[in-house]
Amino acid sequence: MRYIYLLLILSAIFANYDSHDSWCGTIHQGQRDFERFEYMYPQFIDGDHFRVHFTTEASDSLYWNDTWMTHQSTIVYATTVLEQSEFAYSVYENNDWEMPPIDCDESITDITNPGHCNNYGGNSLYDIYIGLVEGPAAAVVPENPNYSLPYLGGLSSYMLFANGLGLYGSNDDLASINYYIVAHELHHAIEFSYGSYITGSPGNYVFHSWMLEQTATYMENIVYPDAMHLRLLLSNCNIETPLTNPQLGIFQSYPGALWQKFLVNYLNDQTLIRHVWESYGTRITNTEDPITFFDIFNDEIMASSDNFFNLESMYREYSIWRYFTGDRAISNEYFDQASLYCTSTTMQMSENIQLQAELGGNRYIEIPNDNIIVYLEAEYINSAPAVLIKIQDNDDITFSNLELLIGSNLINIDNQFNGEHILIVLSGYTGNELNFDNLVISTDINSSIFEGDVNNDGVVNVLDVIQSVDLILNNEYQSSGDINSDGLLNVMDIVLLVNMILNN
Question: Three-state SS for 69?
């Protein structure tokens, strides 16, 4: 009966995940009522840090869904799981991660004592149970509190690992393509050693399952650089990812690992993600208040960059990196596998563009290449950042930072530009994690350009002269400054502009 209950729980947990990424589970305390696997014919093998439990007997089965299903595995399969677990362990240990704690005290000799190792796999090694795991390919189950300074909220855990039959192929051996599953699940065990402070519910920003899966997915490529899991997710244009649904921000699980990959690459700091988890673990120890990862990311980004960058500035850069993917990928720029990813989704100019504040979501807006002025106005937030990208036909790219203050912001577009304009609007970060306002960006297009109003402030004055001079010095063209309409911006236009002001 306990196995049936386990399957029901695991099936419920992953019912809402896409089939491409529903192979993993993290079971939280209070959400389970089952025990470690028990076998009629148990076997095990030990390594330096792990004990792998399994059975080679086909009769070690259970009746499920009108079918006899077996826990049966092989010694070769179990050995491969053990070897890859030890390898992943060494990589994480060498990178100074907090390793999973022991689950029992081997000095306890009284077998009636609940802490006796007989109740925890027979010794203090980390336990991996191979058998029938319906739904995910593997799951990590937190078990008991682990009081290890400074992470007093840490938990011991054990792993359930699929026996390799059916969906995940033959159990004669663990296929190398699935090695990353070991690395992924082991990192969940590491994450639980820092602590598990789960509040809210799935879909809520304070429910931390998204961060557990995001980090474990990112770490797959640290252990196995050629692991394909993240790349396959990001190349699938039919599921929700940071590329197909950029408005969702960094609050995404498996494919959201792209966010962590970006941070490490942009800041050139291989320790950043570990520092995020260390900060999380110490904050759990020192507070009873709800904890979000957003303020932790902000603090660690600032620490990594000597206060040069913060979370909002990383939101901006992340939006640019994600734009240049798929068909827009640029060789040796941005993500190293960008050409293999899905091309990020754009949208046509619309009257209202909605985002949720604080989360790092953005929209890529296609702007018609015509003589127009685009008006933008942000509501429900003090300010919202935006970036105007100009991509010329010769592949020259310029970026202009905009600040959509409450009130109007004007962007001058002219058809003399040989290329395309993309407007990125994104949520800022104010640190107000408990009040994620709905951010509305209102847009409007005016086809008449105010002659002489080079800076688009609605007035023709000396500031427009200064702006025109800057444009000339930078060899840039803007139709509102082309007073004589000869297709050029030069000193003759400055003279005419000055006369306009004097004759006002």
Answer: strand
> How many Å apart are CA 123 and CA 154, to the nearest integer?
20
* Residue type for position 147: Y
What is the tens place of the pLDDT at every residue in 363-384? 998 887 776 777 666 665 556 7
CA separation (Å) from 117 to 38, 82, 103? 15, 20, 8
CA distance to 237, 318, 325, 327, 403, per residue, from 244 (Å):
6, 14, 11, 14, 25
- Beta-carbon count within 10 A of 245 CB: 15
CA angle 229, 231, 237 (to 5 degrees): 110
Residue type for 304, please? S
Collapsing DSSP to helix, strand or coil, 31 comes out as coil
CA proximity to 411, closest of 383, 472, 379, 370: 370
Termini Cα distance of the chain? 89
Neighbours of 159 (CB within 10 A): 24
- Enter the pTM of the model: 0.81
Going from the N-terminus, what domains does the chain have, and what CATH number goes with each? 1-196 (no CATH), 227-344 (no CATH), 346-446 (2.60.120.510), 462-502 (no CATH)
**Amino acid identity at 224:** Y
Instruction: Give the count of alpha carbons within 13 A of 81, CB side only.
Output: 33
Helix 311-323 / helix 293-304 crossing angle, nearest 10 deg: 90
DSSP state of 20: T
Collect all residues with Cβ–Cβ distance below 8 Å to 11 and sequence separation of at least 6: 134, 135
Least confident of 246-255, 392-401, 481-490: 481-490
DSSP class per residue in 124-187: SSEEEEEE---SSSEEEEEEEEEEETTEEEEEEEEEEEE-S-GGG--TTS--GGGHHHHHHHHH
